[in-house]
Amino acid sequence: MGMGIKNKILIAIQGLAYYMRPQNTFEKVKKKNILILIDSVGIGDIVLQLSALHNLNKFMKNKSEYKLYLAANTIICNFLRNIESTFDMELIEVDFSIENKQNFYIFKSNYCEINNNYYDYIISFDNLGGYIKTIIIGLKYGEIIFCENQFSRKLIAKDFVFRLFLKNVNFVKIDHSVQSLTHKSLICKKVLYEVLKCLSNKNEFIDEYSEHEIPVLYQKNKIENNYCVITAGIAKGHDNPYRGWNIEKFAHVANFILANTDLIICLSGTNDDEVANSELYSMIKNKRRVINLTAKTSFDEWVEVLRNAEFIFGNDSGYIHLASMLRTKSFVIAGFWNYGRFLPYGDDVEVCAKPIDIRIDKPKCALCNIIKHNCMEKAACDKKVLKDGIYKCIDDITSEMAIEAVKSHYISPKG
User: Fold this and answer.
1) Model pTM?
2) 3-state secondary structure the chain
3) Helices 318-325 and 299-307 meet at what angle, rounded to 10?
4) What does DSSP say about strands 356-358 and 119-123: parallel, antiparallel, or unpaired?
5) pLDDT tens track of the chain, all 415 residues?
6) CB within 8 A of 38, min separation 6: which ones?
7) CB 30, CB 67: distance < 8 Å
8) Burial code of 100-117, b = ≥16 C-beta within 10 A, e = fewer?
């Protein structure tokens, strides 16, 4: 038996022990405590939840009987603090990272961090996984509200077991199709409506849903000339790590922009993006019109660089969704592993700046992250991943396709 299996068994046993005899016992009090659980570690996930959190905070204004808590990874908590969008919530820093979900001692630590109150409501804008459910069964709470993914049929047996222990669960049904998932922002909105119905009979508030606006964080040292931002890297720790587009194709697009517009190119990103952006910089012909700010900006500066850009060009990563919230045009190299959940933004998604998808025609193996496929397209993609470390639906996007998208949606010809 491998160490991972042993730790999963230990975690399951410990979760059951907490259920039978919680470490701390809390009684229901007059003030209503609401716990929001953020399981994901991706910035894109939390960005798409910001408007739901913003509207929940609007509802809570001047309602002293409620206390909001949010439990999430440190990177998510810091992100909310940095963009000044904590929404008067008390942040509980935990470790829900994928690599540590089999660590028995971190599981116990996470439980202890969260188990400090009786929670009248526990809310998640995601489909809860087994790890989070194992924590919840040991908590004292009134009701759980979260969405249920109809594609999770392979987990029915496990879910049945959890339903024996999870009481007062309000499943918010999410409509998907075999062609496309429901966009994350719409899922958050639907879950929020269910929460408001539980908290109040004032259904008219539903008509007042508004998009969150990230405040201006930094006003000094603005780039004087018009510029676009290009980031060739991808966020680390993603469930789908093989989505980084070929650097030579990025260079082809960058050289086209420099040759056909008056824009400066700003290379931007974190320490994780330095290798990819350095390789890209080496391939750009006119380096005098390139500013490499990779790993050289504070978080506040980075957000404002994105906000003030003419457009952003990059892989499917969190900064693309952040650009949308900052109302900045963006072009994104997009695949099909969870088509519809994050990209594309459909007509029913109400934002001011929808990312412009650059993608091939839909393959038969679309939604491979959700549905098991046994087709030639999936076999070819698996082979491409093993050989070159990139999904085929990403690799098949040509630089000409990207250039055509930029030409079509951004017109600023060189004088």
Assistant:
1) 0.91
2) CCHHHHHHHHHHHHHHHHHHCCCCCCCCCCCEEEEEECCCCCHHHHHCCHHHHHHHHHHHCCCCCEEEEEEEEHHHHHHHHHCCCCCCCEEEEECCCHHHCCCHHHHHHHHHHHCCCCEEEEECCCCCCHHHHHHHCCCCEEEEEEEECCCCHHHHHHHHHHHHHCCCEEEEECCCCCCCCCCHHHHHHHHHHHHHHHHCCCHHHHHHCCCCCCCCCCCCCCCCCCEEEEECCCCCCCCCCCCCCCHHHHHHHHHHHHHHECCEEEECCCHHHHHHHHHHHHHCCCHHHEEECCCCCCHHHHHHHHHCCCCEEEECCHHHHHHHHCCCCEEEECCCCCCCCCCCCCCCCCCCCCCEEECCCCCCCCCCCCCCCCCHHHHHHHHHHHHHCCCHHHHCCCHHHHHHHHHHHCCCECC
3) 60
4) unpaired
5) 556 788 888 898 898 898 887 666 676 677 899 999 999 888 999 999 999 999 999 888 877 889 999 999 999 999 999 999 999 999 999 999 988 999 999 999 999 999 999 999 999 998 888 899 999 999 999 999 998 766 554 445 566 667 788 889 998 988 888 788 999 999 999 999 999 988 886 554 556 788 999 999 987 767 888 999 999 988 766 667 899 999 999 999 999 999 999 999 999 998 989 999 999 999 999 999 999 999 999 999 999 999 999 999 999 999 999 999 999 999 999 999 999 999 999 988 988 899 999 999 999 999 998 888 899 999 999 999 999 999 999 999 999 999 999 999 996 444 4
6) 45, 46, 49, 70, 71, 72, 73, 76, 96, 124, 125, 126
7) no
8) bbbbeebbbebbeebbeb
The two tokens of residue 185 are 């922002």
Query: What are the residues whose beta carbons fall under 8 Å from the beta carbon of 192, sequence distance 6 or more?
Result: 52, 55, 56, 125, 209
CA atoms within a 13 Å half-sphere pointing along the CA-CB vector of 113:
20
